[in-house]
Structure formats: structure tokens, C-alpha cells
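Homework help thread (please don't just give me the answer)

Our assignment gives two proteins as sequence + C-alpha cell strings and asks us to describe the second one. The first is just a warm-up. Here they are:
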Amino acid sequence: MSSQLSLPTLDRLGSTIPDDLDVQHVAQQWFKAFSAGMMARRPNAVGSVLVDDAFWRDMFALTWDMRTFQSSPVIERFLTDQLRTFSLSSFKLRKELVRLERPYPDLAWIQGFFDFETQVGIASGVFRLVPLSNGEWKAHAILTNLEDLKGFPEKIGSLRNFQPNHGKWADQRVREKEFADADPQVVVIGGGQSGLEVAARLKALDVSALVVEKHERIGDNWRKRYEALCLHDPVWYDHMPYLPFPQTWPVYSPALKLADWLESYAHTLELNVWTSSAATSVTPLASGSKHKWRVVVNRHDGQERVLNVNHVVFCMGFSGKIPNMPTYPGMDTFKGQILHSTNHKKALDHIGKKVVVIGACTSAHDICSDYYEHGIDVTMCQRGPTYIMTTKEGMPRLLCMSIYWDGGPPTEIADRINASYPNYLLKLMHVRVTKDIAEADKVLLYGLQKRGFKLTFGVDDSGFLLLAFEKSGGYYLDVGASQLIVDGKIKLKSDSPVARFTPSGLEFENGSTLDADVVIFATGFSDVRSSYREVLDDAIGDKLSPIWGLNAEGEFNSAWREVGAEGIWCMMGNLALCRFHSKHLALQIKAKEEGIFGTRYTDSWLSEHHDVPRARL
């Protein structure tokens, strides 16, 4: 799909933006026709207000899935199928959020928000209208997003518990946390941000959930990593559901500070967490059973607890069970220490040593910088090219980030704007943004290239975004380590692949050598599914769908949905993705528990017509 796409530039549209444009009038007239066609279940009428190569992204509102449809024939087929299933009503344009946007001189659109309802859900939408040569404005992109389930609102705000509690709270919390009266409806495996955020969403929907965390404390998944770890996402992007970071929070969160925040988050929101506990097996119950899954949990005291539940949410992050550590001849003869980055704690462990870090992405840069700052001889061994941008120049420019910046819109609005760009459309925008960032960073990038550092501009020159979405790696968002490489303070070896280990270090394919006392592999992890297979039997493990990466429509594989078996769910992502999609996952579980979940839309016609022409405007 993506190879046939292009941006709706004014040149391509053959249009201009009139000086006397009445933005509100254009948006209202378009919305009147659009909403009438939707409520009348007339796909052709809806199609008539879209450009030929429009995008429509639906998040569970009309498909019970995450889908992106592109081009008029594909969208009209989707609407033909789904408008028969969903009864739509209560369309309302949010006039206060209608605005003309000019991200580039040759790009312009009217962006607007709307609300609507289905027979089971309350939903929101975002549209972007582009001008045509005849003066008409039509939609180039539409988002429809499930916000809530009718009759089952989140118990927040005016729906929170108003009953006073005199002296009973402590005992109640003990019983709740221990599930003394009944098993939970959901077991969440993993107490990092993804596990805590989906547990918070489920609690707000009155679904009982238990978070099982193997570490001694919540936050240890950040607390026990290397000391130099720090988030490179700005704080405005990272807020968590119901409890945003305070206004005094630093823009970039140190890992130890974030770890303490997660622990506080779980305590403040009264989430039910068992620490020092591990789910050792998840097996299906007999077909006639009241529940679907039997989960065995090994508690901190060595006791086993067997729970019968309908849903198990895996919150294992991007890291597979097994670190990805390449093997080389001679490793057994090396007289020094070999570590994976997950086993590295702090630079001070290696005072007076010569350290080589194999890898050239985020962890490698952080670790090398930490060694340099502690006066330790460190060399980065780069195997393949890396995308580099500075956080100073890159973050404010990135399309998905500029709305998450000081003075930007409220988080819930920013989330929907961000989601309203299908990933392959966002990719096209990021090709431009990546060029802008590179121009701003050109002195640093030139210095890196002069030093011998191998650079890439990402998938089809789209920079950071698609590397994160497709590979969850391959980049470094620079906060200082790149200049250390330019200055030679972090040494660099990039002219030849590693051939073998020697007793005293490394030998490379070009015959050069490098002495080392410590070699650290900052080379990522195995397939995410390996963590799932540790507790699922082979029959279920063999059915697991691919996790992460983008499918043909540009949607994430399996994330925030069931992952190959009913009731086995995948929850993952950075803080921002977890904030937004934790509600999607929780709403799906709530709908299943209440018996109102529909059918995920699988369109056999579209799968048989991969080559439906993506018409140009």
C-alpha cells in the first residue's frame, strides 16, 4: 500500500487557499453531508465527500479492531459491510476544535473533531479536509475511535465513589488485594507501565484485575536497569491515565525517578498487585467451564495460588525472554568478561578496565556515555548504520511530538490528533520532518560521519518513527553521547565486522584487533513471543500471532488485542501508546464480560483485492 501513496500537496490538488476562507462554514457543510450519509447507511454518499485516495482509520468503533482503509473503493466496501451492522446516531461537530492547519507551505487542511454513537458505544472522530481545484473540500483522512461503552462508563469524576469510609478501608484493601472472596476477572502479567495502565483502566470500568509482578517492587523493571538510563520522550508525551505527571516534573525522566513514580501510581490508584510473584503456567480450562483460563501463580512466600479467569493480559514489553547475544568463535577463550546490556548495572563496576560495547543504538550510547563520564576507556563497536537525531532539534519537530509539547493541546486531544494520522500517511510526513531535523543537526551529523560513524535516515528516509514501529530499535535520540563520539571521547570501531574473540579481546574481518577486558552486547532481544511461550503450552504458543511491526494496512501486529487465542491479550508500548491504547484493550475486555462485544471485521473481499487502484487526486 505505502509505495503508492503521496501527500495531498496543493500542487497535486491544483488548488490554493483563498484569503477569505470561512473555515467553520466549510467544515459544517462537509460534516452535514458526511453525517447524513453515515446515519442513512449510504456508503456512496459518504464516498462522495472523500477524495479518491482517502484514508479511514477505525479503532474499535466500527470494526471491533484496529484497521486502516485506503482509497474510495476500499472505504466504500468497508462501509457497505459495517453500516449494516452498526446503527449510528448523535453526530455532533465540535466547532471549537475546527481549524485550518498549514504544516508546510504546500500542505493545508481543515482539521475537525466530532462525536457520534453506535448501538453499543460512544465514539469520537477526527477529519482532515483538503481543497480541490473546483473549490470543493473533501476528506483526505478520517479517524473513528471507540471512547466508551453505553451503560458502562468509567467510574471517574462525578461517577467516583461518594460513600464515606470510616475505619474499614485498610481491611477492605487487604481482602481486595488478596482476592479473598473471588478470583479476579483478569490476570495481568507484568507490572511495568503497560500492566499498571491497563489495570487502572479495567478498575475504572469495574473489572477486577490482578497484576502479577516478578520483581520485589513495582518499578524494578526500570530501577534495576543500567544507572544511566533516562527517557528520551518529553514529559508531555508520557502522562499516565488519571494521574498526569506534576508540572514540576523534568522534561526527560530519569529511570530511577520513573520507577518510583510507577510504584506511587500503583499505590495511589489502589491497583491490586502481587510483587515477587510469577505466573508459572496459563492453560485452557475445559470447554464447559465457567472460565477460560487456569493461571498458576507462585507467590513471594513460595505458595501457589490457582486462579480461574477469562482474560490474561501479557505486559512483557518489547524484550523477549532471551537476550539477543550473537555468538562468535573464540568466546570461550576470552579471558575477560562478556555481558548482555541487561546484565550491566553501572560503569563503576569496571574501573580501570578497557570496555567494548557492541551495538550503536540507544542502550549502547547510554552505556558508553556512562563509562566515559566515570573515566573508563570505552569503545563503541558499530555493526550497522544508526539513525541519529538530537532531542533538542528533533522532538519539537516530529509531527507526533509537536502536539505533545509545552503549550500544546490537552493530552486527550493530542492523542486523537496523533491517532488520526494512519501510520503510512505519517511516514510520508516524517520523510519531510526527517530532512528538517537533519538540516538542524547537520554539524553534528557531519562530525559523526567524519569520525566514521555509519548513519541511516531510517525506512525510506522516514527517520525515527518507522524504525520504532517496525524494529523497535535502530536509532539513538541524542542527549549528548553523539558529541562524545565526534570528540573521540567515546572511541569508535566501525570499519569492519567482528570475526572472532581472542584471549585478549576482539579480532575483526579486516585483520585489525581491539583489546578488551569487558565486552557488552547492546544488541536487543529475541522475539517478544518467547516470553509468552514460557507460561503457555506449546499448543497455544504455536498459535500466537506476530507481535509488533506493521501489517499491510500499517497497523500494529497484535498489540492491544488478542494475540492468537481468545482471552490472551497483548499490552505493550511506550508510555504514550500505553496511555491511549490501554483504554482500547480495557473496553474490549469489558465488552466481552458484558456480552456486548461484536465481531472483529475481517473483509474477505479486500483480502482478495490487494491491488485495488489507489487513485491519485
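The one we have to describe:
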Amino acid sequence: MTPTIPYGGDYNPEQWPEQVGEEDHRLFTEARIDTLTVGVFSWSLTQPAPGAYDFTVLDRVLDRAVPQGRRVCLATGTAALPPWLAKKHPEVNRTDFEGRRHRYGQRHNFCPSAPAYRDHAAALAERLAARYAGHPALLAWHVNNEYGGACYCGLCADAFRAWLRDRYATLDALNDAWCTAFWSHRYTDWDQIEPPNALTEHWRGPDHTAFQGTTLDYFRFTTDALLGCFRAEKEAIRRHDGATPVTTNFMGAYRPLDYHRWAPHLDFASWDSYPPLDAPPTRPALAHDLMRGLKDGAPFWLMEQTPSTTACRDVNPLRRPGELRLATFQAIAHGADAALYFQLRASRGACEKYHGAVIGHAGRDDTRVFREVAALGRELEALGDATLGARTPSRTALLFDWDSWWALEISDGPSRLVRYQDVVHAYYRAARTAGADVDVVPVTADLTPYDVVLAPVLHMVKGDLAARLEAVAARGGTVLATFLSGRVDLCDRAFLTDVPGPLAPLTGVRVDEWDARPPEVVQPVRLGESVFEARLVFEIVLPRGAEPVAVYGADFYAGTPAVTRNTYGAGEGWYVATALDQPGVDAVVRRVLARHGLVGPYAGHPAVESATRVAPDGTRLLFLLNHAPGPARLTAHAAGTDLLTGRRVEAHVPLTLDPLGVVVLRVQ
């Protein structure tokens, strides 16, 4: 446990002359920076040739950090190959989706199945651990960096076949799972199986596949292959350091990798937050809550964010004054126990030289960005350990499932225009703007703590999930499912029953037909006295015990249910049969939350975000964040002390939040 929120970020002194280091540390002290992430892309520096190691730069950084009172998150540096390894072992270079073997270049350029990569990466991690385990500056281990991408080489084909043998045991089981009776695909030998790519099962890109079960399994295999690389490095570290926590930095709601499969192997979750600056604040909030949900609600690290602007996009807008502070406190409100930047000093060259940095190329301490970073550092220093270890007491859960995401977006129907993240965000946004704290959890999570479970586009229903959702409703809770839910099993095979498959008893509906239309086709949906818009998919619902809550207003199915509610035990199962606009989703979700008293006191202020954390000693912390450029005038619903100003706030009296302002109340 650190005495304050770790504050700092990626530091790459190898990109600058050695004498710059002293000035860096002066500026770090001025900005209250106490944590340095070091060595993220240092493989060619620390191992310039096979069997040759040079720890000069790392030694200098770690040894200098100690007298300055700083700690180091030490990276293994294995995210990008050194040129010598690619030249000596060309098989470590990836083969892309189109079947092209790449030559050396870029980053994330390694084949996860190549023994040469795994062996050299684990050996480097072990050398680092042997050297720095027990170093007084060492705070955490940072393995690799932003794992991602896929390889389709012969080594991956062999590894995929071995993965399939382990999963299915027999070819009969695999043929059944993949429905290979279709198009004469029945396999009679494991060696006949090819990775699904542009040369085999795909056309028009990665999401257009003839055999969804095959592609779905390759997504799962890729997740496990990259996870195997992480685990090998962690095991190498653990041979010398059994105590220092080990993590790798994720990328929020990142489709290629199922982070739920990684979560048990991390000592704490961490992620890099780079939302489009014009995105609604619920977009990064959803990712924060997803990261918190990876470790059963334990705090996570904000491993990277930009202090000003990003790079490598076509257009890179600048954070306006106050937006950095607001984004940082939003992360803390949702469970962050560290606030780190990419990067501390700007890169001198290459593709990230214009990426935002605390210290620019001129090394000045009088820029707006540096002043904002330093002011925030002083606030976090004054906040101390008040938020460290605090958890979120949510009574609302949102199910997030990578298998459903993959299966939905590689399906050939009903609509390729439905995007999993967009629908999930719409329901998350509705709950958050209504004032509910939300846990974003896997489908395997324990659901007993929750009164409300939101399950948007739960395309795939696995294991005992349907029974556990029924149990939530039976004891008095509410479960909400949506269109395109309950369609397929674990292998992406359609359920041989009425839609929504295993969710039908809970929802009390049957869906025989569905109408998919282009986005310009708008169907009115009437809910009470209000009319909302729906697009993309219109399921035609036959109630089987459920009652209509909203109805379609046009076409031959006008007057049929678009939203239903079914009494189940002491609770309810809701079904939303179409892609409602955001006001429509808001209206439905607020009715669900209101049944359980979960609509918050600030729900009438759409720009005001509230979040709650409870410290290990039971102290309740209420975060109020104003995302508007103007002041927000509220009535405080609870008494407490603002930890950022020391100001006393009384219940039921006016409370004004500054533009982009933050209040952190220790509630009494």
C-alpha cells in the first residue's frame, strides 16, 4: 500500500541525453510525480545481442529514484522485438490476416506461438527479476504492453490444432460444434484444419466468415496464446520475486482479447484510457467499471492517459483546461488507485513525438499542461490515502461478454449494423445518468448482490447463466434483456427452441420473426404518453405471460409489443425487442431502477455524474463531477466534508459545482 495515489507515468530516459535526467527529477518533484513506469520498449536496449545484457540505463533510473522518494513500475520491455531477434529467428515475425509474413518493423510484431519469442521474452523477464527483485524503488512489474493483434502463420496453425484437441478431444465433437456438415466441411484429420483468415473461411474482412464457430474459436485461441506469453513472463519473474505485484496494461473495451480470461492471472488490473475527446463521459466510465469488474470489484490502475493530446490519429484534439483534472477524478471515482500518464517527457522522434506529455521538448515548467499536472499532483498528495482500497457498493450489474460480442459481430444476420459496444453503452449510460452505481461483470459473476441485472445483446447464453438470471428475478430482482439475446450456445449454434432461447421463461415472450432495416428506416415506439425512435432490428414479439410496456407504431406489426415486462417469482424479467434511441433506453431503464429505489438524487442533472466508493474502514466517499462547461446548481442530499477543499457541505442546502468541477465528499 502506498501512502497516496501513485502519480506519474511512462518515462523513457533512453530517448534523451543522460544529463537531462537531473532536470527531469526536479520537474517531477515540482509536479508531485512519485511513480515512474520504466522500460516499456527497452528490449533492444537491455539486450542488444543474444546473450548480452546492458542494464546501465535501468540501473541509473531505479537508483536515482530512491533518494528522490520515487517508486518504479518496471516493465519487461517485451512488447516489441529487437531487430536482432527478428533477423536470427524470422519465424517470430507475424503473418497477417491476408497470409503475408511480415518483416521487422512497428510494434506488437511478434508471433505468440513462436518458441523463440516466448523463450527469449521469458529469459529477459527472468534476468530483470533476478537483478531488481528487492530493489527499494520497485513498486510493480509491468509485463509487455497493450497485448493485441493476431498471427496466422504455420506455428499458430499447429498451436490452434493443439488448442482444439484440448478443447474438443475428438474430431466428432469438433465437427458437431462447428456444424461442418454444412458446405462439405467435415474434418477427418486434425491437420486438415486451417486458421480462419482471408485465404480460408473469410471474405470482405475479419467479420465475414463462412463458419462462425471456427472464427469464434480462433478469437478464443488468440486470447489464450497471448495470455500464455504473459503467464510465461510472470512465472519467470516469480522465480525471483514472490511478492511484488505483476500486471499488464489493458485497453478497456478492446474486442480482440477476452480480458475476463486474463483476470485471474493479474495481481491487479490496469488499463490505458484514450477515449475520443468528443465521446460522452459514460464511455470512459464504462471502461473504468469494466476494468474494476475484472478483479471482483478491486481497485485498478489508470496506467496511461494523455495529459493533453494523443498521437497517431488523423486528428488529435487537445484537452481543454480542466478536462484532465475531471478525467482523472472520474477514474478515481470509478475505482482507480493510481493515475499515470503517457508520457512524462515527450519522445524526441518517431510516431509519438507529438503525443501529449507532462514535459515537452523544451523542458519547460511554465506551460499550461505542466501547471495543470502539478496542480492535480498537489490535490492528490493532499487527498492522501483516503480513496485507496475503496470499493463501489453497486446494486446494479451490467453483463459484459466477449463471446457475445464476437458472435454478434461475425454473424451473417439479422443485421451487421448492430454494434455490441454501442448497445451495451446505451444501457450503461442510461443507468449511470439515472444515478446508479454499476458493476460491469462477466456472465460468470455471482449475481446475488444485485437488485438489477442489465443484459443487453446477450447473444450467447452459456452454462447455468439462464438459471442464475431467473434466480435474481425469483427473489425480487429485475433482469432486463434485449433484442438479439438468447440466440446461440457456446459454439455459436442456434438454440433449437423459440427465441430468446433459455431466456424465454424469464422474459415470458416468444419471437418468431425479426425485421432488419437500414438506419434511415425509423419505427416509432410508444411508451405511455411518450414516443421514441427505434432502428436496425425490430423483433416481432408474441407475449407468453409478459405484458406489453411499449408498442410499435408502424408497419404490419404496429401495435405489437416492443418492450415487455414479465412477472417472475417476486421479481420481473424485461425484454426490449428493438434498438431504441437513447431517450427510449433511458425511459425503460429508469422504470426498472425506480422499482428498486435506485434512481439517484442528481438524476435530473444530466451533466452531473455521481459515484460512490467505500473505504476499507467503512468511510463512504461520494464523488460529484460536473461535465458541463457551466456551473451546476444542486441540492446536496447528504452532509459531509469535501476532501479537496476542506469545505463543509450540509444536507438539503444548495451546492454549486464549478464548470468541470469535482467534489469528493466524506459522507457522515
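TA reply:
I won't write it for you, but here's a hint about the kind of observation we're looking for: The chain has a mean pLDDT of 97.
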